[in-house]
Amino acid sequence: MKYFKKHKVELICLIIFIVLLLGCLGVFLMLWFGGSGEVYGNRLEGIEKVPVSEGYLNDIEKALKENASVTKVSSHIEGRLINFMITVNDDTSISSSKELSKIVKDNFTESELKFYDIQVYVLDSGANETSTYPIIGYKHKTTEDFVWSNNS
Fold first, then answer.
1. What is the pLDDT of residue 152?
2. What is the pairing mode between strands 81-88 and 117-123?
3. Domain range spanning residue 90?
4. What pTM value is reported for the model?
5. Is residue 41 part of a domain?
């Protein structure tokens, strides 16, 4: 008992140090290992019922490349979002560029259109300084048609 009375300040400092150390360890573990769950949470629920394969996207890319104004097309899927990057000739009008979204939309089934969001980025080569490109079209799964960015 004499020991505790004699070293009261040191013991209190030691207890505070141990509590702070455990607190820091707890915060570290929570931040470091706390985010190990799914990236998209449960937002991808049911995605296996409406699959879109890379081969399917390649077929849509080929259909887009059949248009004379299209020079390059790429696509990729991120969760429930399907992105198309379309490069057109510099002399292509905005209205004909927007028509490319019809090709994209017509190649998806009704169930795919109701499940996935679709984005279409239309770019030109960038040689013209006064270009109105890029334009971006977005179709939400609950809408019927694309909505285009303000500069289009």
1. 53
2. parallel
3. 47-148
4. 0.70
5. no
